[in-house]
């Protein structure tokens, strides 16, 4: 590094240059995930589901939170990945889990690329519509291709061979699944974290904040959006494949509007465009829906609806946003790097 | 000759469904064109209207047509309250917030209906006068379908008159085309929008009541048909009354024909066609180009 000029020493410049650095608290979610493994061995099935949901929400965060693509059809890619891994294993074509994930990422990424080429030409209502249409299209196709996809009933009882030929997937005692999903989540998270702090990720944020200006400075806006959408789709596909492998079945629920809406709610609940919003949102949502459906089994959707309305009206940045506001109110500055 | 009758009955059946689709979606189209507000809860107003119609007929014993009027008025009243209290806060908000807010509203409607009325399908009993077949000269066809077509065409003509020939209609057209200019002319956009919103929700309620006979009526209604309402708006072009009419008629007939000749993959084609059409004309068939 050359001699620092005054511009480099400006606090804002230092904050900007150092924002990709790993902070101490960033280890907490991973410690909690490992602690969960030892503390609640009986709830590892639930934990696996939670980790898959987090990964799915992270993939949405990349498209929605960073690139600002408002989509209601992200389950299309989750389902594409789930069906890819599920069908390959079910029909005994290819059942090794990790390469299954890669195949799922490739297929879901291809679906994302294909649909992205079409729908990222539009904005607003039309874009929203087209994401919904793409998902409905895939759902209908999966429903119709009964011979390959199992149709309405899906594919039950997929055989997954042991991981690395050693660790057996046990549906009743899903220790292997939990650690496997945690490992994949970690790899994907490191990738996404690196991506959003790269110049590419910065340009995505720029497009979200001011598309016109990004055009004006000569950024290839559409190409960036399409690449981002494709990567996001591939990660969603990995999440879907993990879901299929850990549950040992695939059905139409992986492609439905319910799943797409749920992941959107989770991300927004936690706070979008923040990477860790997916973690906070998934935990909060799972805990909330567990609590609500236990004590108010008939009215839990009412609570969810009220929560969404309140978030949209008063807490647009979710739980993490509330924390940030509180931090500012009581005057704690973010630890400067 | 046989084939001709086949085609005619297919077109009639499709048009009947299309008219319901139009009556429900036209309010969404106008409010979307006027405010650019992404109201995913529009189907919930249609469901509310349908439930009011069914329950009013069952518990008060009033006729079908008065029940439709009650549904229109009550739903419009509910929508005015929601618009003034909540919607109006989000007109300038990001699209995502509007999407979240209206999805939340849909959930609230769904669970409210489930809690109050119950999760089961509510059958609608249409009056005897509208049942049976009507002799149209060359073919007999269901009276209710003919009734729906007559109602739909009457409504689109009425809306056309209202839009083209009244002062209020001219204000709405002006606001759809250029909102800021209209505001600078001293037209109260907020009031204009509240009235349009209430009217559109009332229309949705009317459509919900009219269509309950063949669309069914259960708490999942707003999510089940959301894609279709949005397709009508997007294909017709937001803010275009006639656009919504043609789009709804087209989709109704297409859906009917595809269900008949391709019972397996009918809806698939509608999605594909919609995607292709919006690829060709992102602003819809009748929308103004950006």
What does this structure look like?
The complex is a heterodimer of chains A (337) and B (290). Chain A is mainly α and 337 residues long. Chain A has a single domain, classed as Orthogonal Bundle (ABC transporter involved in vitamin B12 uptake, BtuC). Chain A has 16 helices and no strands. The two termini of chain A are 17 Å apart. Chain B has 290 residues and is mainly alpha-helical. Chain B has a single domain, classed as ABC transporter involved in vitamin B12 uptake, BtuC, CATH 1.10.3470. In chain B, 74% of the residues lie in helices and 2% in strands. Chain B is built from twelve helices and two strands. In chain B, strands 1-2 form a two-stranded antiparallel ribbon. In chain B, helix 11 runs antiparallel to helix 12. Chain B starts with a helix and ends in a 10-residue tail after the last helix. The mean pLDDT of chain B is 86. The chains are: A mainly alpha (337), B mainly alpha (290). At the A-B interface, helix 7, helix 13 and helix 15 of A face helix 4, helix 10 and helix 12 of B.
Q: Beta-strand percentage of chain A? A: under 5%
Distance between the termini of chain A: 17 Å
What is the gyration radius of chain A calculated from CA atoms?
A: 21 Å
Whole-number count of domains of chain A:
1
| CATH C-level of chain A | Mainly Alpha
Summarize the main sheet of chain B.
2 strands, antiparallel
Quickly give the structural class of chain A: mainly alpha
Major protein interface? A-B, 42 and 48 residues
The tally of strands of chain B reads 2
Averaged pLDDT of chain B: 86
How many extended strands of chain A?
0
Oligomer status:
heterodimer
Low-confidence stretches of chain B: none
Q: Unreliable segments of chain A (pLDDT under 50, ≥5 consecutive)?
A: none
Find the CATH topology of chain A.
Answer: ABC transporter involved in vitamin B12 uptake, BtuC
**CATH 2nd-level architecture of chain A:** Orthogonal Bundle
